[in-house]
Amino acid sequence: MLFMKRILLTLSLLVGFACIIAPTALAQDTLLDFDDVEFTDGQDTASEYLDVPDDVVFTDGQDVAETVVDSTTSNVGSGTDGSPQTLWGIFIAGIIGGFAAFLMPCIYPMVPLTVSFFTKQSGTRSKGVVNALLYGLFIIVIYVALGMLVTLVFGASALNEAASSAWFNLLFFVIIIIFAISFLGAFEITLPSRFVNKMDEKSNRGGLLGLFFMAFTLALVSFSCTGPIIGYLLVEAVSEGALMGPAIGMLGFSVALAIPFMIFAFFPSLLKEMPRSGGWLNTVKVSLGFLELALAFKFLSNVDLAYHWGILDREVFLAIWIVIFGLFGLYLLGKLKFSHDSSVPYISIPRLFFAIAMLSFTVYMVPGMWGAPLKALSAWLPPSPTQDFNLHGVGFASSTPQASNAIVKKYGDVFHAPHGIDAFYDYDQALAYSKQVGKPVLLDFTGWSCVNCRKMEESVWPDPQVLKRLKEDYILVSLYVDDRTELEPDEQYVSEFSGKKIRRVGQKWSDLQASRFGTNAQPYYVIVDSDGKQLVPAQAYNEDIQNYIVFLDSGIASYQASTSN
After folding, report:
1. E strand map for 295-440
2. The CATH number of the domain where 426 resides is what?
3. Maximum distance among all alpha carbons in the chain?
4. Which keywords are on file for this protein (predicted)?
5. Which of 34, 210, 296, 431 could bridge 176 with an S-S bond, Cβ 3.0-4.6 Å?
6. Is the dihedral of CA 296, 297, 298, 299 positive or negative?
């Protein structure tokens, strides 16, 4: 009976830590910190601008507008930065990283030794199981503490700045490239042996303290394998700008890493079914090296887009990925070897299927070199307007001549809209043109490093019904909140909302979004009239095409109702 109570108590701690703390952190982080924006007391901008104006009278479009109120309101705040969706994505990525780390050469061979300790050295099986559960709990505590430390060291504002900072993204690119090279076998990233040995000595103590240092020793000894994975997870979490992102990522990682140890401690007979250690462990390590090498270029692309260097256009980015994943497929077929690889006399069936998957993925990307949309990768690739050679017809806004082409658009030489949409890139200019043509304005708060913005542009906007409305019924103005283009000296100002000096285009639109609409999540869509008055509740990230059509139709109905009065 005592045995069952101990197991239930420890399991409760594990499950509670994973399932209660995580959602709590998610809920706390939905209150966003704004990039380059500071809040002051006494300003309730959200309540002023987020409600539908009382003087708007809905006519035939009233039902449509009422329908969209609920659907769009439920999506407000579900953008990329710090939203629950983003944090759950980080948590899942952490779980995947944890299971991948378990298959590393530094950890996998240690499983039988660790389980043997729990089953033989603990005296009784019941005590061994409880110790295994506590061991897993300590693994979780150690790695979550690391994530919390990152948050405490950098702080919320620094994490948000890192999400769009060129120097941070360049640093992340270099760090991940180093991690990838390490996984490919060029060198090992290890901690000082004296420190590791001292922790190992403390792990020989009995009781809870000994178990804690045993888990701590695992984290230290396996650092050469887990370090690059942890590093990438932390970098990815920081780049999302989420306050609790690092801790949530480490929670997922540690849970996935701890679970196998506990399962094998519960059922020691399963050890006989484990595949033997061998060269396949290094294959897993090298495979992760290829993946990290490919993912590193996403961070370089963020910088390239924000500063308009034009180095990593869409086809250049695709060319790099095609080569990387092509070599990855050849490696899995045994055509490439690295320093720590053993000879491959034959290809196993699982390895063959993975090779087929990588080579198929490579072939899938090839048409993108000539403009194919590649919707499955839209979140990762540079925007389609950066494509220099496009046979698919997805080009610059000038590909569809419209009335506003006679206007010299501000920043038109810097930004380009996808799918031939005749967009503006300056808020005031878009409002002025709206008065001329009598159409509502769709504010598209977006960003170069915004993954979900690319998804909306490549998955929702190309729909014929959506595209027709964007081209014919609206004045689209795309406002990039992370752009680094310098404002003219006479356009720079001190924000009344934050008190900060606004020097860049991105800062200007970030300040507008935060001060007018009380949020800094992207993508974020707001429909306003020619005077900048919000017509219907805003829409955040939602790939439901029908929902987006209803949102657009409600804006048209509201605009027509307001102009008819």
Report:
1. none
2. 3.40.30.10
3. 85
4. Cytochrome c-type biogenesis, Membrane, Signal, Transmembrane, Transmembrane helix
5. 296
6. positive
The three-state secondary structure class of 434 is: helix
Cα gap 551→474, rounded to integer Å = 12
Structure tokens belonging to residue 535: 């017509």
Say yes or no to pLDDT of 552 above 90: yes
The type of residue at 340 is: H
Given 260, 278, 296, the domain boundary residue is 278
User: Percentage of residues in the chain with pLDDT exceeding 70?
Assistant: 73
pTM of the model: 0.67
The separation between the first and the last C-alpha atoms of the chain, rounded to the nearest angstrom, is 77
Whether residues 61 and 175 share a domain: the answer is no
Least confident stretch, 162-171, 212-221, 500-509: 162-171
Q: Is residue 201 part of a domain?
A: yes
d(CA 524, CA 151): 26
Phi-psi region of 529 (alpha: psi -120 to 50; beta: other; left: phi over 0): beta
pLDDT at 475 over 90: yes
Enter the tokens of residue 127. Answer: 């005590």
DSSP code, position 37: -
Residue 339, in any domain of the structure: no
Higher pLDDT among residues 427 and 161, named by residue: 427
Instruction: Give the residue among 432, 399, 414, 406 at the shortest CA–CA distance from 528.
Output: 432
> Which amino acid is residue 25, in one-letter code?
A
Same domain, 434 and 471: yes
More confident residue, 486 or 202: 486
Q: What is the DSSP letter of 41?
A: T
| 51, two tokens | 């409600």
Residues 59 and 108 in one domain: no
Spatial contact of 299 and 239, defined as CB atoms under 8 Å apart:
yes
**367 occurs within a structural domain:** no
Confidence band, pLDDT 50/70/90 cuts, at residue 404: low
Final residue of a domain: which of 253, 278, 303?
Answer: 278
Q: Show the DSSP H helices in 74-122 as ranges.
A: 84-102, 110-116
Domain that holds residue 239: 85-278
For helices 314-332 and 349-365, give the axis angle rounded to 10 degrees.
160
**One domain, residues 67 and 173:** no
511 three-state secondary structure: helix
Question: In terms of domains, do 420 and 522 share one?
Answer: yes
Strands (DSSP E) found in 119-240: none
557 lies in a domain?
A: yes
Q: What residues form DSSP beta bridges with 504?
A: 486
Q: How many domains does the chain have?
A: 2
Whether 213 and 240 map to the same domain: the answer is yes
Q: Give yes or no for a contact between 217 and 200, defined as CB atoms under 8 angstroms apart.
A: yes
- DSSP label of 119: I
Report d(CA 114, CA 104) in Å as an integer: 16
Q: Are residues 69 and 96 in the same domain?
A: no
User: In terms of domains, do 418 and 557 share one?
Assistant: yes
pLDDT at 451: 82
